[in-house]
Amino acid sequence: MPLQAMRQLVTLLVLIALPARAVPVSGAGAVVALLTHADAGRGLARPELVRRMAHRARARRRLLSHPVRARVRAGLGAGGGIVTNEYLVHLAVGTPPRPVALTLDTGSDLVWTQCAPCVDCFDQGLPLLDPAASSTYAALPCDARRCRALPFTSCGSGGGGGGGGSWGNRSCAYVYHYGDKSLTVGQLATDRFTFGPGGDNADGLSARRLTFGCGHFNKGVFQANETGIAGFGRGRWSLPSQLNVTSFSYCFTSMFESKSSLVTLGAPAALYSHAHSGDVRTTPLIRNPSQPSLYFLSLKGISVGSTRLAVPERRLRSSTIIDSGASITTLPEDVYEAVKAEFVAQVGLPLSAVEGSALDLCFALPVAAAFWRRPAVPALTLHLEGADWELPRANYVFEDYGARVMCVVLDAAPGEQTVIGNFQQQNTHVVYDLENDLLSFAPARCDKLAASL
């Protein structure tokens, strides 16, 4: 398709909405994929890793002119939430299998990766997925029910069929946008997805035929280490829904370690109990009709040390989500200020501004401070319905002894929504029981999950 025609299609797609029911792909058994941090293996120092994470989160929030409304639009099915590219799922697509690295995002539904020919795409380290090179690739026709299931779809045009040099006449073209104004436009198709630690073993239960977006025009805050996004939301297009599983789980290794872990879909949670280092706690997953793809929790309060903040429960109970695609836990601005004031009162160290840092709550460390003589920091506890989530120190405190500074890794955001991000979920086995609407979590050595394969 000529470049000018492609750009015209992008404009057209934004104006078209053809809602219909989606048809999930059924499947049996469990699938497993490797999970790594986005910056794993880059040899970056700990302060630089935190700086990169914080700036990625801030960069995405700067794009939001109306944060809460963007989230609502996302929940209605037009697109996803805010993704910060922190943890990548490693899969393979096609026959023969070609590797892709997709951001694990529980805040959106569509599974997509960049494809050739690429009209306007972000740079990526892996080769572009080439539909013409896969013997099992099949473009969806635009009159298919699965095509009409997305809000913004239309009929592609161009010479010839297939997914090679053109989109194919009468193929299903889509546009999918995110709350941070990122965008992917391309062709909806089906192909063989290969799961498992090797990424190229297409035997047995590790292979499934799934519907995905083959993105030819992709813009936003993306990075070279990813090729697209794997939506894990509640919607029919997400990976859990297409695999027809009743549960999924992930376990994020520390962002400071170049170790792999696992994301599992359909496997019983007890299978990985050997990696747990503490008790399993369970809280209800709440459904919100205005944002049906997101996973809401009933957050009843927040404690810093033994002090429970004087925040009305109604401020938190109906507006808190857990989001694998968000890096830092964000709180409404007034709630954040209350948390900050309590840390300042209890830590007893002078506040310190860190040049070039996106973190706001930082303290100057005394000269005698060292890893084996760390200043005391009050516990941070999220009081959920039926379960208290007391965060390990490493999941909300960062010390840079070279710069003699210690920061609390939390942030404020406009609006009323609280987002529990992946930094606070490190080394925690998190299980989503979709059948019973329950979230379970337990402290764990996440790298032991990958070692058990």
What is the topology, as strand order, of the major beta sheet? Answer: 3-4-11-5-10-9
* Count of β-strands: 28
Report the end-to-end length measured between terminal Cα atoms.
44 Å
Question: How would a textbook summarize the main sheet?
Answer: 6 strands, mixed, barrel
Alpha-carbon Rg, integer:
22 Å
Helix content: 10-25%
How would you classify the helix and strand content by structural class?
alpha+beta
Total number of helices: 8
Low-confidence stretches: 1-28, 60-85, 158-165, 198-205
What is the percentage of strand-forming residues?
A: 25-35%
| Shape category | globular
Mean pLDDT comes to 79
Structure, described:
With 453 residues, the chain is an alpha+beta fold. The chain has 8 helices and 28 strands. It has helices at residues 3-14, 46-62, 67-78, 145-148, 239-243, 313-317, 333-347, 447-451, and strands at residues 31-37, 79-80, 87-93, 98-105, 111-114, 138-139, 153-155, 172-178, 183-194, 207-219, 228-231, 247-251, 261-265, 281-286, 296-297, 299-304, 307-308, 320-322, 330-332, 361-364, 380-384, 387-391, 397-400, 405-408, 411-413, 418-420, 428-433, 438-443. The strands form 4 sheets. A 6-stranded mixed barrel has the order 3-4-11-5-10-9. The radius of gyration is 22 Å and the shape is globular.
